[in-house]
Write a structure and sequence with these properties.
Elements lengths: L3 E5 L4 H17 L2 E9 L10 H31 L5 E8 L1 H11 L4 E5 L13 H9 L4 E4 L8 E5 L4 H17 L2 E8 L10 H22 L6 E6 L2 H12 L3 E5 L13 H9 L3 E5 L1
Length: about 290
């Protein structure tokens, strides 16, 4: 169960949306929300200038940090104040991705929430460097927020029967149950090397048995919560994205690695592609 959520914000529009999503999850899951603002120092630092310029630049730098922190306290604090969630605003200075990852470990959070710069869509690859960096390097679940609604009504989890997919289903089930949302599961039919090739009937029978096994595992991981399961075909990432659009999913949940040849990677190609192209928020579960 998720008890602590870390959400990164710089008070940009997509970051504010991430805070609102974290609040929704915090309310539903009765989780504590930690809001982290990182003053980005990935640009040339004042110390790289000469002594005279450095003295002037250092003062300006301090003022910039203070001004940005004040803005975060005003905007994020204003949203959180009347939300009813247990929250704390944290500040840091440094590289955003590294600071987010470090603080997630220090605070032992159960989920990291980040905003997506882009609007999604299959032709777009607009995630943002911070969201992309956190998604690929984090050791815990990461929710990339895109086009959030006021409430979580539909949760979709993609499953291939792998251990990571079962973990994703369990978390999706917890979120759906807590938010009183509908829970959907989708399995993408992909031809297997072990699939019989002697006849169409045998191949279909094999596919049906595989699907039945995956469906059974999905329902077990969902703790027998009321849910819907469907099988689709096509390119896995595109099929998942299109199905999410079809059912109006607010959150798409995927395991970071599946049963494919790249399962040893920190994040698989399917989950990575869905996160970049989906119009829904995407939760990658480790």
């Amino acid at each position: 169960m998720v008890s602590t959520i870390l959400v990164a914000t710089d008070c940009s529009n997509h970051a504010v949306q991430a805070v609102k999503m974290a609040i929704n999850l915090g309310k539903a899951l009765h989780a504590r929300v930690l809001v982290l603002h990182v003053f980005d120092t990935s640009y040339p630092a004042p110390a790289e200038m000469g002594a005279w310029e450095w003295a002037i630049g250092q003062g300006a730098f301090t003022e910039m940090v203070a001004a940005e922190r004040e803005q975060v306290e005003k905007i994020a604090g204003g949203i959180l104040k009347d939300s009813g969630v247990n929250y704390k605003i944290l500040h840091a200075v440094g590289h955003p991705v590294q600071q987010i990852l470090d603080r997630a470990i220090q605070e032992n959070v159960d989920m990291i929430v980040v905003g997506s710069r882009g609007s999604g869509g299959w032709q777009a690859v607009l995630l943002g460097s911070v969201a992309d960096g956190v998604m690929h390097q984090a050791s815990r679940p990461v929710l990339v927020v895109r086009n959030p609604s006021d409430a979580i009504k539909v949760v979709l989890v993609a499953t291939d029967g792998s251990e990571c997919a079962h973990k994703a289903t369990a978390m999706a089930s917890d979120i759906a149950k807590a938010a009183s949302a509908e829970l959907y599961g989708v399995h993408v039919l992909v031809p297997s090397r072990n699939r019989p090739s002697s006849s169409t009937a045998e191949a279909e029978d094999f596919d049906n048995k595989v699907y039945e096994s995956i469906e059974c595992g999905f329902k077990a991981a969902a703790s027998n919560q009321e849910c819907h399961m469907e099988r689709v075909s096509g390119h896995p990432a595109q099929a998942i994205t299109q199905y999410a659009e079809k059912i109006g999913a607010d959150i798409v949940v995927l395991g970071s690695r599946g049963l494919g040849p790249f399962k040893s990677l920190l994040i698989g190609s399917v989950s990575d592609t869905v996160a970049h192209h989906s119009n829904s928020s995407v939760l990658i579960v480790r």
